[in-house]
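Summary for the steering committee. The consortium agreed at its last meeting that each partner would contribute one worked example illustrating the joint modelling workflow. Our contribution is presented below. We chose a case with several input lines so that the handling of multiple components could be demonstrated. No manual editing was applied between input and output; the record is shown as generated.
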Amino acid sequence: MNKIREPVWRFLLPSFLFVGVFSLYPIFESFRLSLYRMILTLPWLGQKFVGLENYSDLVTDPVALRSFGTSLLFVAVTTPVEVLLGLGMALALNETFRGRGWLRAVVLIPWAVPTVVTSQMWRFIFNDRYGVFNYLLFGDATQLYWAPLAEPGLALMAIMVADIWKTSAFAALIILAGLQGIPGELYEAAGIDGAGAWQKFRHITWPLIRPALLLALLFRTIDALKVFDLVFVMTQGGPADATNVLQFYGYKKSFAEGMIGYGSAIAVAVFLVSLALALVYIRVLGTGLLRKERAA
Amino acid sequence: MKRIAFALAVAAIGAWSLLPFLWFVSTSLKSATEIDAIPPVFWPSFQWDHYRAALTEHGLLRYIGNSVIVAGATTVLSLAIAALAAFALARFKLRWARFYLMLLLALSMFPQIAVAGPIWRLLNFLDWLNTYQGIVAAYIALSLPFAVWVLATFFQELPYDVEEAALIDGCSRWQALRLVVLPLAAPGLFTAAILVFIQAWNEFFFALIILTYPARQTLPVGIALFPGEYTMPWGEIAAASTIATLPLVALTLIFQRRIVQGLSAGAVKG
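What follows is the complete predicted structure of the assembly.
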């Protein structure tokens, strides 16, 4: 195939450069820094090698452990809801009806809205004095109004709602692509055999879109673990650390408090959790790719 | 009965997707008393004061300018670099092409916090904090995995015969890429460009840590750090948000087919 010998590296070099300098090197550097004690507000301490001390601090830091739990809870609630809502949207978009193009466009709008805007928008909706959320719940009885973003039990839920609003469309698109790959003859044949709508869904649609559902779930899981913008704008990790997710805690330690070593240990911990998920994902996807290659 | 239920479901999906944002757009056009009125005022009195205030008092124009420069430069450079790499990965028989693609895929999943500290230190060392080149370099690295995957997928689907004929006629690989592959892959390039642009336009975390001077900040940072002393200036925030979002909504509505295609190419195939 490659009859003319031209150095491949010329084509790949620019991408290697950026990936190496701005992705790979920083990851290794985070690992290295996590073994040091370095606090920008205490510069006279210098950069002192402390081995795994940051990590032993991390597993005994109650705020970090709670932050880990908050992140897991966030992922565990939002991703299934997003995939189920996405499935509903995809099933509707897969039907032929008047206004289908419109619905597809409308569904994409939350995806296109910047996350920072999404955050301010829901913050306004959840306002404690004149938010429309309170009005829908309590009407004119303003003395009953909640302050969702100031109550530990509600703040995380409010952020979950904003995340679900913003990202369900993405799940819907992945699932829709899966739905469109199902040949129509299958449904016709099932119809001739007398299958009802539920049976068609149960025995044709469900098994055939399971890979797409799994993909959407994995994508959303990896993304939900990185949630930051919503927390930064809506609650700043509060109230009382109730929404202090991992990426926000790492940001606070590294950038607000200047604890470079400890912040890096948090970064590495988040990285390892994501890596584990990424490996699962690549395994699932990798086998899909292999199958495609064999078929081709 | 079934049709009514379906129509209701469609209406519910539409309302859930559209109403919260429309509510915020409506807020941007309300007077101060309408904004915190109970019961809420749904139809605004179309006051443009918040837009004027956001543009003149809060420096919205500067944020828009910075966002256009940063997202635009990121899109052009990232696509150029990704096109070169994707061409090599799709057309040269490389034993480690698969490994490189998987590495990119893995990198695209890592949380930004895992690289943020060292990137900050690196840019600080280069004296590139609060510069366009600093944020654009970070964004290129952020968008490359996705751009390479989408373009490699598009390139792979192009027929090879035209390119082969060009090579037999004495074209170099570089000429084949420039004269044959890129024109044929223009739709794919365009799709990738829209998606990279949207990502760069919306990015907040790197912008927050790299751009600390208001003169260099992009729209998301401006909107997130909107100053409010005693009460939140919701009208101005909503106006700035609307301005930041409208170009994206327009892009999405005009190119929805391409975006859906590109996202599912990037997701399902990579």
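The mean pLDDT of chain B is 90. The two ends of chain B are 41 Å apart (CA to CA).
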